[in-house]
Specification:
The protein is an alpha+beta fold. It has 6 helices and 6 strands, in the order H-E-E-H-E-H-E-H-H-E-E-H. The relative contact order is 0.14.
């Protein structure tokens, strides 16, 4: 036989447990209602979209082996590295279009990243080059010259048409576009999928450092064409 006081204690504990369960369920429902109400009252903020800006793309032409500056309007981020990447992606988007004068295959995300590093001398001091008139003009814009490391996607490099002129026009076009929009970028090096690569598609040397002013003053790789901006 179960003593009477134990039965009473058991039923009291059972009633307390039921009451606590009801209270907890109700509190949970109220908290959920407050959360939904807060979501309804919270203002919906529009995603940040960069304003469109005027930029210069230096476009190559396979017809006469020249480079020509073209003004475009496109949204650009504030960060210089992200800005450089957006410009180069737009440049390569032009080359993938049917009307391109320098046709290249369309590749998703052809530019992996663009890293900007300060140019330093052997002692680790920021280098300032004043022996070139073209570089001197850029000095007026920035006293901190930079090296751009352009990381090309492997798919872009692998699908690029082979040939010294076609490859060099792409390289000079990239250098020229960086020079036109970010004059503090004085030098450019290329990686492919984050690693060093000897050539772009068998000819253009990717093991060397390019001066951005080469896209302004240097001749193109054939005697019949040149790399001057028009």
């Amino acid at each position: 036989m179960i003593p009477r006081y134990q039965k009473i204690t058991f039923f009291l504990l059972l009633l307390v447990s039921i009451a606590m369960t009801v209270v907890l369920v109700r509190l949970r429902e109220r908290a959920h209602d407050r959360l939904l109400q807060g979501e309804d009252l919270a203002p919906t903020s529009a995603p940040a979209i960069a304003a469109a800006e005027e930029a210069t793309l230096v476009l190559a032409s396979d017809h006469d082996g020249t480079l020509a500056a073209r003004l475009v309007s496109l949204p650009l981020p504030k960060d210089d590295g992200a800005r450089a990447r957006a410009l180069l992606e737009k440049l390569l988007e032009f080359y993938a279009s049917p009307q391109s004068t320098h046709p290249l295959g369309a590749v998703e995300r052809p530019i992996g990243q663009v890293f900007l590093l300060p140019i330093t001398d052997d002692k680790g001091n920021a280098a300032r080059k004043t022996d070139s008139a073209a570089i001197g003009a850029a000095e007026a814009h920035s006293d901190k010259p930079q090296l751009a490391i352009v990381n090309l996607a492997g798919g872009f490099a692998d699908s690029h048409p082979s040939g010294i002129e076609a490859e060099m026009l792409t390289v000079l076009s990239i250098c020229g576009t960086l020079h036109a929009n970010l004059p503090q970028i004085r030098e450019v090096r290329f990686l492919v999928d984050g690693a060093a690569r000897a050539t772009l598609a068998g000819h253009a040397d990717l093991a060397r450092t390019y001066l951005t002013t080469e896209a302004v003053s240097a001749p193109a790789p054939t005697a019949a064409s040149n790399g001057n901006l028009q």
